[in-house]
Amino acid sequence: MSDVEIRVPINSDQDIVGARQKGRTLAAELGFSAADATLIATAISELARNIVSYARRGEIQLQRIQNTVRQGIVVIASDQGPGIRDVAQALQDGFSTSGSLGLGLPGVRRLMDDFEIASIPGQGTTVTVRKWRP
Amino acid sequence: MEVPILKQGKVLIATIQAALSDADLENLRRGLVEQVVKFRSLGVIVDVTSMDVMDSFASRTLREIAHMIRLRGAETVIVGIQPEVALAMVQLGLTLEDVATALDLEEGLAYLNEKFKTTN
Q: Do B60 and A110 touch (CB under 8 A)?
């Protein structure tokens, strides 16, 4: 169930700031603590950065999620970029193909509660992360 | 969003006042390195109290600023990292490595003044 849905196009480094600010605002609206909102905003920043660095353009979607017992936020970062050839390797600390720190995905996984990635080489990557309100 | 750089004696103080894009951070790096040379500064304080997110690019740029300024013979202190920002940095696995940090501007100035005493 998702009644709130915000879509932020990511086309340049300027859009990274906007995406994480929208994420922080939604997290606060959903009742997350300031500390959790910071973790969520930081995760969004890294995901949006991956889009700019590897795929040049894509989109960040922010949604409210709710099940019978709790609610939370879901962040979906999608692009039609080159994709990731070896997802398992990309999830290891210290791995990078663009000369960056290579901490993006494993770090994002630690910041959030749930982490899913789907990537097809030549077609793009979608990363879905969730954080549940305590 | 340009970051104002204030000259106070031998120290330059850059106070980040809003969310910075990558380009803003790169401008800050260029501005600080230029001004350290121009004013023959011995110390630089970057006040990040207002930064609500420190991601991999921001922490890498701050490390680069500190290392470039050290090559010019001056010392950099990062001050004001907020507790929740510190938590996010640790979870992301980001560090500032050997870059000095201090609680706030006052502590940062005290750190630099102590450094100046021991080196002069």
A: no
**Chain B neighbors of A11, CB-CB under 8 A:** none
How far CA A84 is from CA of A56, A94, B1, in Å, comes to 14, 15, 34
A69-79: pLDDT as tens digits = 899 999 999 99
Q: State the average pLDDT over residues B20-35.
A: 94
H helix or E strand, kind and range, residue B14: strand B11-15
Paired strand residues for B45: B13, B77
Contact A63, A69 (CB under 8 A): no
- Domains contained in chain B, CATH given: 5-119 (3.30.750.24)
- Interface membership of B37 toward A (CB under 8 Å): no
Structural domains counted in chain A: 1
Q: pTM of the full predicted structure?
A: 0.91
Write phi, then psi, for A81 (nearest 5 degrees).
-80, -160
Domain holding A97, by residue range, is: 5-132
Cα atoms found within 13 Å of the Cα of residue B61, Cβ hemisphere only = 21
Using the predicted structure, report yes or no on whether residue A95 has a pLDDT greater than 60.
Answer: no
